[in-house]
Design goal:
This protein is an alpha+beta fold. It has one domain: Pseudouridine synthase. It has 8 helices and 11 strands. Strands 1, 2, 3, 4, 5, 6, 7, 8, 9, 10 and 11 form an 11-stranded mixed sheet that branches. A hairpin with a 6-residue loop joins β10 and β11. About 2% of the residues have low confidence.
Length: 281
């Protein structure tokens, strides 16, 4: 990932190109295209042309006018994204998502040392005290709030940080980030659900500032969609850990590449064993 892509504003994002896109492809056949989205690229089309979003770039790559985005991630979240190339494939994956036959796993770097699995079942709703319209928070049950279930599995905790597997039973807006803040282990690099939401507001207006690095530690939230799997398939699609997360883990948690891969293998094994069996009621 090119860190210079973070200097732009939220409204006018950076552009990608064909060479970058083809380097992100995890799997492709006549039915689907799976890519490892970088953490600086939005999914949905913007006003800045087709190469300013993942959907626009994929349309250019495939030479089509329409494509179905079967799974999405927030702009700053990297990882596995699946596109369905035709209606039949779209129905298959959409039904799988609706019936919870499609699951995904995430890995993240949390601020603070978490040593035991933590599971949450709360209600989420709009944060009326925030100046950010999209911001969510844990709230009481109501007509507008939605239940959200999240499981945090620490893979290794060291030097004030935790490399963590995260599994969800629900797909609510900003669910992982809200819950991480709620349990007082916010994501490294978190502008909105971290120490001060003004970082998010300033970023939207002016883009990234290196002056924030001593506090935020990373230029984006340290969240990565690791695996995506349909229950009817034995093999998940896996997105390699991006360089910025890997470098942070090596530098701050003092892990070498083999140790990081061991943690990822542990995360993948936990996902394979528990991903479709989770239940908080």
């Amino acid at each position: 990932m090119n860190d210079s892509n973070f200097v732009g504003t939220q409204s006018i994002g950076p552009l990608t190109n064909l060479d970058e896109l083809t380097g992100w492809i995890i799997y492709e056949d006549d039915e689907i295209l799976v890519v490892n989205k970088p953490g600086w690229l939005v999914c949905h089309p913007s006003k800045n042309g087709p190469w300013s979003s993942l959907v626009g770039a994929v349309k250019q790559y495939l030479g089509v006018n329409n494509i179905h985005l079967a799974s999405r991630l927030d702009r700053e979240t990297s990882g596995c994204i699946l596109f369905a190339k035709n209606r039949a494939s779209s129905r298959y994956w959409q039904k799988g998502i609706e019936t919870k036959q499609v699951k995904r796993s995430y890995v993240s770097i949390l601020s603070g040392e978490l040593f035991e699995k933590m599971s949450l079942s709360t209600f989420l709703g709009k944060d009326p005290e925030s100046d950010v319209f999209v911001k969510q928070r844990v709230t009481e049950k109501s007509r507008k709030s939605k239940n959200a279930n999240t499981h945090f599995y620490p893979l290794i905790s060291r030097n004030g940080y935790t490399f963590c597997l995260i599994l969800t039973e629900t797909g609510r807006k900003h669910q992982i980030r809200v819950h991480a803040q709620y349990i007082k282990y916010p994501l490294v690099g978190e502008k909105l659900y971290g120490e001060d939401e003004n970082y998010y507001l300033k970023f939207c207006e002016h883009g990234w500032s290196d002056d924030w690095m001593p506090v935020l530690k990373m230029k984006r939230q340290a969240l990565h969609g690791r695996c995506l799997r349909h229950e009817q398939s034995d093999l998940p699609f896996k997105a390699n850990l991006p360089g910025d997360l890997r470098n942070f883990i090596k530098g701050e948690l003092d892990l070498v590449d083999d140790e990081i891969e061991h943690c990822l293998a542990k995360a993948d094994e936990l996902f394979a064993k528990t991903g479709f069996k989770l239940s908080l009621g």
